Description:
The protein is mostly helical and 77 residues long. It contains 3 helices and no strands.
Amino acid sequence: MRTLLSAAEAAIDAGAKDDQERARNRSKLYAPPRGQRPTSRAPGATAQGRGMSMAQAQALMASVATEDAQVTGGRNG
């Protein structure tokens, strides 16, 4: 696979007019697919319908710990 990618890069580089075009081509070749690129968003925000923020995860863990303590009667082990 790596050899195939190197061959593709060499073929694209051969058609480039200058170093700047080679750099642009290389960045396009090695860039992750558009659907996989991370989006910039505010800290603590999550993509719609995906995961939860750190605060939400901590609140969930506290809730689970409280429920666990109630079920086990305060016993550990």
